Amino acid sequence: MATIAPLRAVFVPRTSALTNTSLLIGGTVFMSLMAQIAISVPGSPVPITGQTLGVLLIGSAYGASLGLATMVIYLALGVMGAPILAQGAHGFARLSGPTGGYLVGMLFASLAVGALANRRWDVSLKTSFSQMLLGEILVFVPGLVWLKVYTGQGWGWTLAAGLSPFVVGEIIKIGIAGTALPSVWALVRRVRS
After folding, report:
1. How far apart are CA 55 and CA 74, in angstroms?
2. Could you give the count of Cα atoms lying within 13 Å of 166 in the half-sphere of its Cβ?
3. What gap in Å lies between CA 108 and CA 76, rounded to an integer?
């Protein structure tokens, strides 16, 4: 399938340094707000947050390169001290701590989800759910591996603390992102016809 512009191109067809900067700032603010939707999980150093939903939406709407750039800027600002990571956290300790793998996984997810959006996987419900599931996997695999290495716990504890409490919420996030993008594309098609 040929590469086609992501949804962002419908609303911002001509890109410039100014429009890309505006989109980067908007995406970073969006991710910062999504990170503040956070619930601590008893017995786990990993909170439930809106970040994964944010990554799926930004990656898909912005495409691979702009989605990845947005996530890099978001994480860089958080590491440098801006209180924009989950629950207002900041600093390098967040990247090197127990949740660091999930944060790095968000980079992989934004790139992959964006690359699939560039190929219009976000247009159809059939492919959009697969696209979003892949994004979730790319967040959780490095997250779980790093959590296990960081804590020195076994896989049983790691899965219980770093995956099990999140399954229902992540399914809901896949459902939201997997239906939102095709719905917006359907609206765009109606408006254009």
Report:
1. 11
2. 28
3. 15
Name which of 75, 120, 129 is nearest 102 in CA terms: 75
CATH number belonging to domain 8-192: 1.10.1760.20
Q: What is the pLDDT of residues 89-131, one digit of tens each?
A: 999 999 999 999 999 999 999 999 999 999 999 999 999 999 9
**CA 111/CA 108 separation, integer angstroms:** 5
* 94 within 8 A of 83, measured Cβ to Cβ: no
Predicted structure pTM score:
0.93
Residue 122 in contact with residue 185, Cβ under 8 Å? Answer: yes
Q: Which residues contact 155 (CB under 8 A, 6 or more apart)?
A: 148
Asked if 97 contacts 150 with a C-beta cutoff of 8 angstroms, the reply is yes
* Residue 84, φ and ψ in degrees, nearest 5: -115, 0
The C-alpha atoms of residue 166 and residue 53 are separated, in whole angstroms, by 12
SS3 assignment, position 38 = strand
Contact 84, 90 (CB under 8 A): yes
What whole-number distance in Å separates Cα of residue 169 and Cα of residue 165? 8
